[in-house]
Amino acid sequence: MDYGHDLTFGAFLTPDNRDPQGPVRLAQESEAAGLDLVTFQDHPYQPAFLDTWTLMSWVAASTERVTVSGNVLNVPLRPPAVLARAAASLDLLSGGRFALGIGAGGFWDAIAAMGGDRLTPGESVTALGEAIEIIRGIWDAGERAVLKVDGAHHRVAGAKRGPAPAHDIPIWVGAYKPRLQRLIARRADGWLPSLSYLRDGDLKTGNTIIDEAAGEAGRDPARIRRLLNIAGRISAVSDGPLHGPADQWAEELAALALDDGIGTFILASDDPEDLRTFGEEIAPAVREAVARERGTSGTLPAAARRERAVLARRRDGIDYERVPASLASRAVEPGDAAFGSLRHNYLRAGSPGLILRPANPGQIVDGLAYARTQDVPLGIRSGRHGISGRSTNDGGIVLDLGALDTVEVVDPATRRVRLGAGARWGQVARALAPRGWAISSGDYGGVGVGGLATTGGIGLLGRAYGLTVDHVVAAEVVTADGRILRASPEENPDLFWGLRGAGGNLGVVTWVEVEAMELGDVVFSQLTLDASDTSGLLQRWGSAVEAAPRELTSFLILGGARAGQPATAHLMSVYAGSDTDAAVRELERLAEAGPVLDHRGYLMPYAGVIQEGDAPYTGGGSPSVRSGLVTRLDAETADAYAALARSGASYFTQIRATGGAAHDLPPDATAYPHRHQNFLLSAMGAAQPALDTAWDALVAPHTDGLYLSLDTDTRPERLHDAFAANLDRLRRVKRAYDPANVFNGNFPIPPADH
C-alpha cells in the first residue's frame, strides 16, 4: 500500500557521551549528506548517554536545515505538559525543525529506578493517550480556555496554553502492539517501529490495524506517516536484505515504500561513510524509483488527501476539488490541524472556508484565478494585524502571504531593501539593525509589511522619516487578471502611484522595495502623566510635539480614571538619534504637559522598540475603530477628544504625531494625500453604532481626513475622507487594473465609469 507520502530520509544516532561532540558532528555530517532528519535514542536512565533533549537542542543550534527528533522520547520520565512547552520552544528556536517522536516506555525497572511509575502494558498505552491529549492541548494556544485533563496517569488542572510551535509538529509513536497502533490511528501523525524488531508480515498487519482504526475515527489513513528505523551494512557484496551495495538498498527501500507505505527511512548508524552514502546515493535513487512508479500508477499525494472529519466541514460556494495543484498541499480547511492558528486576525475573529498559502507569485496567480471562480468573499493577508480585519472572513477564501517573508538588500549604496509582503516589521528592523539602517513602520513589530507599506505607515520614526509609503521605490504586483507587474516611477507609474496609499484595492503586492534611513541607536521613552486635566494636557503635549525637531516622534494613549487614581496619559516617544542630551531636552518638554507619574528611558536600536511579536491570534473581540487627522490640538479639538474619552463609547484612545518629513511631499505625490496634518486621532470601541454616534458628534467636526488602517466605518463617504482630491484619479487607476472590483474586501474603491 503506497500512501503517497513525500519520501524523507534520516539518521538514527547514538547519544554516546564519551565524546560529547561526536553525535553533534554526525548530525552535521548527516545534514551535509542531504538527509532530512536526525534522531536520537532516549534512555534517560542510561548514564553512558547524553540527555537526549539537551543534545537535540544543541544539534538544532548547530545545524541549519535538518529536522531533529527523539527516537523515541521516554514519556514516563518526561511530564507531558513540560514536554509540550519544551517541544514548542525548540520548534520556535529552530524555525520549525522539530518532530516529536514519543514512546510509552518499556524498560520499567530502569524507569522505576529513576522515579517513574511502573505501568502495565495496558496502563502505558492509556498514559500515552493522556500525554498526547495534554501535549496537543498545550500547543493549542489559540484556544482561550485553560487546559484541564483528568487522566488516570497524567493530569493538568487549569494549565495555561502555549506557546504555539512554529509549525504543526508531527507526533510519531514507536509501537508494535495493536492497542498502541490503534491509538496512533486516532491521535498521532506517524507510526515509528524498527525493522529489526518486526517479523515477516508485521508491517502489513500493523498498517491494516492503523488503516481500519483510522477509518473508524474518520481519518484518512494516508494522513498517518509510516516511518521505519532500518539497519544493515552498505558493502560491495550482497549478503542478504539491506546488506549489500547502494543499488540493492535503493531497490529494497523502494519496495518498502511502494508495497508497505513507508514514507520515512531512518538509518541506524554512527558511521559517517554510511550516512554519506545513504544521503547522497541511496536516498536519491529511492526517490527516483518511487516517483517513476507513482507516475505510472497515478498515486495521489498524501498531502492532497482530506479526512472525513475535514470533508464534513467544507463550506458552500467553494469547489474544493478544483484547488490548484500548486496550492493544494499547503491549503488549510476548517478541521485541519493548522486551521485554528490561521483563521483569526489580531483583532478580528474569522472562519474562512479555505486558506491558500502561496509561496511565490505564480502560485498567487493560480490562487487568484481559482478564487475568482468561487462564489465567496476573498481576503488578502500579509501579517494578520490589520485593524479592519478584512484579511479574514466567514466562509470565504483567504490568500495568506506569510510565506513571502524575505528581507534582502538590493542596493547598499542607496540602502534599498526588498521586503516580502508577508514579512513582519519586527523582522525587518532586526535584519537592518546590524547595518545601522531603519524603516519607520508603525508601533508594533508583528504588523505585516504588505498592508502597512501600501496604506501609509505612521510610525515612531515618522517625523524624521516620513510615511513608509514615501520611501517605497518599487513593487511587484499580481493583478486581478493574473499579470505579474513591476511598478515603479518608470514602469506602470499610475499603478505605482496608487499602490502608495490604496494598494489593497489594486492587486496582490508580493514585495516592495524601500529605501531605509541611516540610524544607529535611538532614545526610547515611556512616560506616564496625570491626565486629570485631559484637554489641557493634550494641548500642551501637542504644542510640544509641533515645536520639537523632527527627530522626536511621540504617540499618546489616554487611560481612564480608576478608583482612587487619576486618568493617565501614556506617552511612547522615540528620538531618532543617540544624542541623549538633545533627547532629554525634548522629552522634558513633553513631560511639562502634565504631572509625571512614571518615566523610563532607554538607549537602544530601533529593533528594540519595534520588537518581533507573533502571538497566536484569537480574534481579539472584533472592535470598532474610528480615526481622523487634525492639524492642531487646539482647545476645541482637545475638548472634543477628551469628551469622547470620557463618553464610554471608546475604551482605547490614541493620538499619533505625524507631520515633519511627511509634509515634504505634495498631496498628489502618492495616493495617500494628507500632507499638512500633524496628528492622527483614533478611538476603539465595542460597538460601531455607539462609536460612530459619539465620534460623529464630538470629534468628526474637527477632523480633516482619516487613516483607513485605523478605521472600520465602511460608509461610502469615508473614501472621500481618506483620499480627498486623489479619489477620482484612484478610481481611474482602479478601472485600469481591477475593473471587475475583485479586490473589494477592504474599503473598496469603485472603478471609474469611463
Automatic annotation (TrEMBL):
<keyword id="KW-0560">Oxidoreductase</keyword>
<dbReference type="Pfam" id="PF01565">
    <property type="entry name" value="FAD_binding_4"/>
</dbReference>
<dbReference type="InterPro" id="IPR016166">
    <property type="entry name" value="FAD-bd_PCMH"/>
</dbReference>
<dbReference type="InterPro" id="IPR036661">
    <property type="entry name" value="Luciferase-like_sf"/>
</dbReference>
<dbReference type="InterPro" id="IPR016169">
    <property type="entry name" value="FAD-bd_PCMH_sub2"/>
</dbReference>
<keyword id="KW-0285">Flavoprotein</keyword>
<dbReference type="InterPro" id="IPR036318">
    <property type="entry name" value="FAD-bd_PCMH-like_sf"/>
</dbReference>
<keyword id="KW-0274">FAD</keyword>
<dbReference type="InterPro" id="IPR006094">
    <property type="entry name" value="Oxid_FAD_bind_N"/>
</dbReference>
<dbReference type="Pfam" id="PF08031">
    <property type="entry name" value="BBE"/>
</dbReference>
<dbReference type="InterPro" id="IPR050416">
    <property type="entry name" value="FAD-linked_Oxidoreductase"/>
</dbReference>
<dbReference type="Pfam" id="PF00296">
    <property type="entry name" value="Bac_luciferase"/>
</dbReference>
<comment type="similarity">
    <text>Belongs to the oxygen-dependent FAD-linked oxidoreductase family.</text>
</comment>
<feature type="domain" description="FAD-binding PCMH-type">
    <location>
        <begin position="348"/>
        <end position="519"/>
    </location>
</feature>
<dbReference type="InterPro" id="IPR016167">
    <property type="entry name" value="FAD-bd_PCMH_sub1"/>
</dbReference>
<dbReference type="InterPro" id="IPR011251">
    <property type="entry name" value="Luciferase-like_dom"/>
</dbReference>
<protein>
    <submittedName>
        <fullName>LLM class flavin-dependent oxidoreductase</fullName>
    </submittedName>
</protein>
<dbReference type="InterPro" id="IPR012951">
    <property type="entry name" value="BBE"/>
</dbReference>
